[in-house]
Amino acid sequence: MSLFNLFKKKNTAEENAPLTENDPLENFPELLSAKLLFLKKPILDSNLLLTEVEKHFAKVDHSFTKSTLIFSFPDHTIQLADGAVPAQCTIMIPDQEEAEIDLPDAAFQQNWHWPEANQTAKNCTYEILVTDFMSRTLPYKERLNLFMDFLVAVIRVTQPNAVYSSPAQKILNPANITSIWDTDKMQTLNAICNVRLYNVSNDADHKELLMDTLGLHTIGLPDFQIRFSVANENEIANLLWTYAYYVYEYGDVILDGNSLEGVNAGSKWKCEKQLSLVAPGRVVVNVIPD
Questions:
Q1: CA dihedral 47, 50, 55, 59 (to 10 degrees)
Q2: Where are the alpha helices (H) located in the chain, listed in sequence order?
Q3: Which of 77, 159, 191, 203 has a CA 20 to 30 Å removed from the CA of 31?
Q4: For the chain, which residues make up each domain, given as ranges?
Q5: CA separation for the pair 3, 51 (Å, rounded)
């Protein structure tokens, strides 16, 4: 594979989630979901939601109950053994006036992109869940575009104070999600991917860090990780985002033994596929600095 150029803050490493050496070295698509967080319970108007969703999709079917709003998209179908079914997205609504915000500890650990993220989320008292459904076998670009068009529509109507991205394990500013999706499709992965930083050294005199991407695995692509001690953290972060957008553009094409361009122009950093060093357990391209 040819080299490519770049586009141009620490937690202790977690225990790795279970993924055995016998698993194939590829990731399989997982549920895409986001939690919309509110300071107080929002007024949810299903008709307004449907109207906004219809701005993004030529055909929309729907089924609404008090606690679940289901939107089906006949122009995006998956093939099952007994026929084709439309891809769906859902909104899950709690019954109670105030629903305790249920976020994992990891949600508060890697929010370098938004300084107010943690406090904003902790101040919220109500959440609704947005997910895709029956869409995992769609081509990953089609699937992500469908989910993001739907998510942006729901954000516009409900006006949450924060959004927790489950694939990326990060808290996002809702205005940032909608503005990027509207104006800068070069940042397609903003809402489902994160770059994380961990201190993996026990020696105070020898700093060793690990940075990785998180979220690509949920659309069936490999994530990336780099373990290093002398490189600049911001440069490694930029590099990881470049790698992420490369596989998003071209697919799971990086093989063991391939080289990717490193921090310096013309440098060749070897690649190998392996299980991730930090949770969640998933297949990553381990990039080895020269």
A1: -130
A2: 46-53, 117-123, 140-158, 174-183, 233-250
A3: 159
A4: 11-29+193-288, 33-187
A5: 45
- Alpha-carbon span 97 to 125, nearest angstrom: 9
Phi, psi of 270 (to 5 degrees): -70, 150
In the chain, % of residues over pLDDT 90: 76
pTM above 0.90, yes or no: no
Instruction: Look at the alpha carbons of 14, 248, 148, 234 in this order and tell me if their dihedral is positive or negative.
Output: positive
Which residue's structure tokens are 């989320």?
A: 121
Instruction: Locate 156 and state its tokens.
Output: 């516009």
Contact 14, 174 (CB under 8 A): no
Which amino acid appears at position 85 of this protein? Answer: V
